[in-house]
Write a structure and sequence with these properties.
Blueprint lengths: L9 H8 L6 E4 L6 H9 L5 E6 L2 H10 L7 E5 L5 H7 L5 E7 L4 H5 L26 H7 L2 H12 L4 H11 L5 H11 L10 H11 L2 H15 E11 L2 H14 L20 E9 L3 H6 L7 E7 L1
Parallel strand pairs: 1-2, 1-4, 2-3, 4-5
Antiparallel strand pairs: 5-7, 6-7
Helix pairs in contact: 1-2, 7-8, 7-10, 8-9, 11-12
This protein binds S-adenosylmethionine.
């Protein structure tokens, strides 16, 4: 791996989580360890951090980055789909704060062997966890029917040209590399503005390969389960699909009744578990975006366990 990953909305995350000495925090997407290092520093001298990542290479980077906090940091190779189980086994229940910084890191994007980047040539892999036997992006593009491919591109990439791209893929397969796929998409759709035409196709495949939205849906209720009363959750999303999912979950969990509005009386036994912090998501400043263009689409949502 090369380069570094600059954590997005760094101070807003620390403020949102109300990090304090002695607290017990879970960074469920520890990545390069940038936010985690901030949490450990702000919770000095005795705060503790449990870091999870699906990617063994990310965990290794985090281990090196956090080595000066050895004894206060525990790193576990796991998906946040198993948050409760990992938190329990690591004696992190209940937690004072949980962070999810979704998507992929600059380190993963910079490594051509991982297959995330259309600007670099590499195998069409895209698995966050290469030790996992799940399908690679190559397996999906080379095996799905044109209809299945078009639906995947439309659903996870919100790609308007999904059908045309799917047909071109099927006509040219087998495809093995990121450059092959990116060049093919470039032939099918013309570039408008600064966004590369293959951006949505790559996003869609990455979401599908890693079942990202399903995993997020499974994880969100578990965050509520692991938090102590007054504990905070902070979630950073980078595209509208994940932010929508987070927003709906938080809205539902902040209500005492979730009955359909047409019902005259409440029949659900739902009780609010969260209090929303801030009416709108926190967005990066222009200065942050200028210094770290990856921050451009980030949205941070924060809530507190009741
Ligand atoms: C944006 S990066 C996090 C960067 C980190 N906040 C930092 O400051 O360095 C997202 C990380 O989440 C990891 N990830 C994605 N899906 C995951 C999942 N289901 N469970 C655990 N980690 C996941 C990725 O491997 C990646 O390392």
């Amino acid at each position: 791996m090369r380069g570094t990953h600059v954590p997005v909305l760094f101070q807003a995350v620390l403020d949102g989580l109300q990090v304090r000495p002695g607290g017990r925090y879970i960074d469920a997407t520890v990545g390069g360890g940038g936010h985690a290092a901030g949490i450990l520093a702000a919770s000095s001298p005795d705060g503790r951090l449990l870091g999870l990542d699906r990617d063994p290479a990310a965990l290794e980077t985090a281990r090196i980055r956090l080595s000066s906090y050895a004894g206060r940091a525990v790193l576990v190779h796991s998906s946040f789909a198993h948050l409760v189980e990992v938190a329990r086994a690591s004696h992190f229940l209940p937690a004072d704060g949980v962070l999810l910084d979704l998507g992929l890191s600059s380190l993963q994007l910079a490594d051509p062997t991982r297959g995330f980047a259309f600007m670099k040539d590499g195998p069409l892999d895209m698995r966050f966890d290469p030790t996992h036997s799940g399908p690679t992006a190559a397996a999906l593009v080379n095996s799905l029917s044109p209809e299945e491919l078009a639906s995947l591109l439309f659903r996870y990439g919100e790609e308007r040209h999904a059908r045309r791209i799917a047909e071109a893929i099927v006509a040219s397969r087998p495809l093995h590399t990121t450059r092959e796929l990116a060049a093919l998409v470039e032939q099918v759709i013309t570039r408008r503005g600064r966004i590369h035409p293959a951006t949505r196709t790559f996003q869609a495949l990455r979401i599908a390969v890693n079942a990202e939205l399903d995993t997020l849906e499974v994880a969100l209720p578990q965050i509520v389960d692991v938090l102590a009363p007054g504990g905070r959750l902070a979630v950073i999303g980078f595209h509208s699909l994940e932010d929508r999912l987070v927003k709906r979950f938080l809205r539902r969990e902040s209500r005492d009744c979730v009955c359909p509005p047409e019902l005259p009386v409440c029949t659900c036994d739902h009780r609010a578990t969260l209090r929303l912090i801030g009416r709108k998501p926190v967005r990066p400043s222009d200065d942050e975006i200028a210094a770290n263009p990856r921050a451009r689409s980030a949205r941070l949502r924060v809530a507190e366990r009741i």
